[in-house]
Task: structure prediction
Amino acid sequence: MNAPQTPHALHFMPSEGFRARAKDVVENPFLRQSFRGAMDFLMSKRAAQFPDPEELESLRRLGERIRQYNLAKLPELLEKLEANLTRNGINVHWAETPEEANAIILGICQKHSAKLMVKGKSMVSEEIELNHAAEAAGIGALESDMGEYIVQLAHEKPSHIIMPAIHKTKEQIAKLFHENVPGVEYTDNVDALIQIGRQVLREKFEIADIGLSGVNFAVAETGTLCLVENEGNGRMCTTAPPVHIAITGIEKIVEKLEHVPPLLSLLTRSATGQNISTYFNMISSPRKPGEKDGPGEVHLVLLDNGRSQAYADEQLRKTLQCIRCGACMNHCPVYTRIGGHAYGTTYPGPIGKIISPHMLGLEATATMATASSLCGACGEVCPVKIPIPELLIRLREESFTAPHANPAMRGQGAGYSARISAVWRAWGAIYGSPALYRAASWLASRFRWLTPRKQAGWTSVRTPLQPAPKRLRDLIKERKP
Result:
């Protein structure tokens, strides 16, 4: 990302550093224990919300059909959404890149001489690194979601798309508050910490010039922006400041209001194990004459950032079905051991592995698709039935096959190696010919002492492979009378 630099700007990390970051976490027993406990807790809460397997599968099939139906009509629905939002008095902006989205938002802020922006939880604003761009432009950007506020104080990125500070202990949060919030004494009492954060944020809501939020569902037929939350900060961000800016990806659209309840039920139960969230906000216009509260001006920024690339391919389009519940992360054996920061991208875990390549290109994410056991857990729990394992295999093919004309993805062939490709072709030839296989196995067993002690990535965590002194066929012959 090319957002303006600030002292604490945290930009996407190169994929080649993924293995080193993952190794650091794996070797930290405290972090591993913390993530394992948190993920077990979330998995059990989700399971308790779906006691009837048949009801769960029926709801998942419905969610999948709703998402696929709306994605099939996406261009038409986007135009309809813009028309109805405009009719309702909401300004619609289109951004192809993060830089364009930041320019639009900062332009609105500068038009109103804004000094402070309070933000509800928005992973898309994390995706474009809005906070750093705003700070570089002299505009304060304060996260109002408690988890986001904590990681902002720590100058970190969220480690989970639903629970940004899940990697922090109450003692670490207490130290953060004591060191960064003026006049706050150290306390690790959770209720006291929540009250400290609430007091700070309520004061900011009163003086903020701009309120920014994400969007969970945008309803085309009514021109309505739906926002799901638990803390009430989203409602404050969208009503207290005089200007409200919403930002979302172009895929978060449904045609009708009746499409929202099934997706909401899947979202809340899959994400946090709740029957329903505490707040469900529906925003259809700015403050009207005679109304006593609400913003006088509302804007929506619709961001592409690689989504149209995924949309153009029938298989990759399924990536855009995601409703950002985080269930795939909670059940992933890789994510639960290394956490979100190891990935170095806004969206970690299984969903990050399949969506980040479209946003950042395969050059920056070639190794992410291989950080999976392909156990299938992510696909089994996805509430809208995204075939994540199949998409991971497709991304591996796109990354490691030879570059060719008219690729489906930016950076296709980024991980291709002529040497490795030649090795696999040789392997295929040997195992495809009984005569070659017999000859190769005979040579391997007789000259096993030539086996190298270092075998690329295999011996970084395992003992070297070495052929047996005798082949199985040789042992069988010796046992025959």
Notes: The longest strand covers residues 243-249. The beta strands are 91-95, 116-119, 140-143, 210-213, 217-219, 224-229, 243-249, 253-254, 279-283, 297-303. The radius of gyration is 25 Å.
